[in-house]
Design goal:
The protein is α+β, with helices and mostly antiparallel strands. It has three helices and three strands, in the order αβααββ. A three-stranded antiparallel β-sheet has the order 1-3-2.
Length: 79
């Protein structure tokens, strides 16, 4: 499984939580720079959001990535 797929699967499994690149990398066994590239690519593809916020794992204020929460109809809340 490539890094992008590992990161996407991890974020979907932890939907509702935000992770910085360092914590994403640690969680899926890749280095932070690879975590950065993977998070950037999955955010461009849709279904994930990258924004500045607090990492759910380390508590630091950083650029974080999270899976988008969907309603029961498959829509993004608020859109």
């Amino acid at each position: 499984m490539i890094a992008r797929d590992k990161v996407a699967a991890f974020l979907v499994a932890h939907r509702g939580r935000c992770f910085c690149e360092r914590c994403l990398g640690h969680a899926v066994g890749i280095d932070p720079s690879t975590g950065h590239r993977a998070a950037t690519r999955i955010a461009r593809a849709g279904g994930f959001i990258r924004e500045y916020g607090v990492c759910s794992e380390c508590g630091e204020s950083r650029l974080v990535t999270r899976a988008v929460l969907l309603t029961s109809t498959g829509d993004v809340p608020g859109e």
